[in-house]
């Protein structure tokens, strides 16, 4: 392949990408990466103002982005998010399920309310967002044009979904279930040329980790082989691989971006 052919693999010009949890952290970083590759990016979260600020930052850098509010725990809002995205742009090519609710509690202090609140956002929301997006992803020019790698869904997991997580049983179990859902959807959606993959981040320097304070950050970094927290921009490469034609033969897979936490 020539150099232009290689660059074209990662080119997302003309594609519409929907990123949940897009107001900050990994969602915002992925949104910047997709926009820099040429995509139109829709950033979504519960807080519209925060998403609008992030979308404005992307536009200031020359990208194309907008904001749409959505609470992933409310199924009606999840469906409306997809409908509004397609109403604005006429298509949907890539869906990134990144929004999460990291409620902390263990088995001894679990309540039905807390369990449901966590799983509603971390598992039920992504399921029904994929369901709502499916008809539009099937019609995506990326899926209907055999010269491309197809449409794409990326579910953001956590390395905590692969081992025991005392104190975060709902979050960890939901991410583990989302991994099963990812593999099941990959097989179900393959006939429509929709690829479904996952990214499992380890410790990143995002609010979810930094809010725990310096001691927590130090302990978290220590579990990685590289002994550091990742910069949020380090999620962009794996996300671009799975969203673009560069990942045309990758589906039902999970990329662990964890500095060797699971090594």
Question: How would you describe this protein?
Answer:
The chain has one domain (3-257): Rossmann fold (3-Layer(aba) Sandwich). With 263 residues, the chain is α/β, with parallel strands linked by helices. The mean pLDDT is 96. The two termini are 33 Å apart. It has helices at residues 3-9, 25-36, 48-60, 75-89, 112-139, 141-144, 169-189, 207-210, 213-222, 236-243; strands spanning 16-20, 40-45, 64-69, 94-97, 151-156, 194-201, 254-257. The protein is built from 10 helices and 7 strands.
Strand content: 5-15%
Shape: globular
Would you identify the CATH H-level superfamily? NAD(P)-binding Rossmann-like Domain
User: How far is the first residue's CA from the last residue's CA?
Assistant: 33 Å
User: Order of helices and strands, N to C?
Assistant: HEHEHEHEHHEHEHHHE
The CATH topology annotation reads as Rossmann fold
The low-pLDDT segments are none
Which sequence of strands runs across the widest sheet? 3-2-1-4-5-6-7
Structural class from helices and strands? alpha/beta
**Number of helices, where a helix is a run of at least 4 consecutive DSSP H or I residues:** 10
Overall pLDDT confidence: 96
- What is the radius of gyration? 18 Å
CATH class identity:
Alpha Beta
Please tell me the total number of domains.
1
CATH architecture: 3-Layer(aba) Sandwich
| Helical residues, percent | 40-55%
Major sheet: 7 strands, parallel
The total count of strands amounts to 7
């Amino acid at each position: 392949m020539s150099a232009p052919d290689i660059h074209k693999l990662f080119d997302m010009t003309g594609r519409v990408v929907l990123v949940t949890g897009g107001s900050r952290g990994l969602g915002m970083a992925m949104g910047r990466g997709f926009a820099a590759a040429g995509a139109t990016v829709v950033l979504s979260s519960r807080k519209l103002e925060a998403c609008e600020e992030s979308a404005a930052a992307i536009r200031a850098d020359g990208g194309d982005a907008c904001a749409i509010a959505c609470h992933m725990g409310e199924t009606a809002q999840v469906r409306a998010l997809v409908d509004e995205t397609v109403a604005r742009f006429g298509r949907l090519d890539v869906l990134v399920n990144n929004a999460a609710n990291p409620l902390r509690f263990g088995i001894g202090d679990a309540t039905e309310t807390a369990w449901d609140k966590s799983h509603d956002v971390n598992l039920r929301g992504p399921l029904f967002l994929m369901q709502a997006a499916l008809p539009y992803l099937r019609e995506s020019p990326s899926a209907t044009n055999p010269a491309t790698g197809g449409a794409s869904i990326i579910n953001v997991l956590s390395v905590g979904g692969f081992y025991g997580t005392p104190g975060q049983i709902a979050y960890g179990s939901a991410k583990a279930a989302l991994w099963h859902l990812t593999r099941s959807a990959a097989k179900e959606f393959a006939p429509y040329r929709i690829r479904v993959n996952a990214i499992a981040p380890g410790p990143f320097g995002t609010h979810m980790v930094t809010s725990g304070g310096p001691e927590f950050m130090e302990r978290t970094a220590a579990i990685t082989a590289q002994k550091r927290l990742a910069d949020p921009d380090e999620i962009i490469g794996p996300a671009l691989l799975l969203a673009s034609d560069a990942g045309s033969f990758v589906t039902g897979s999970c990329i662990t971006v964890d500095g060797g936490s699971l090594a």
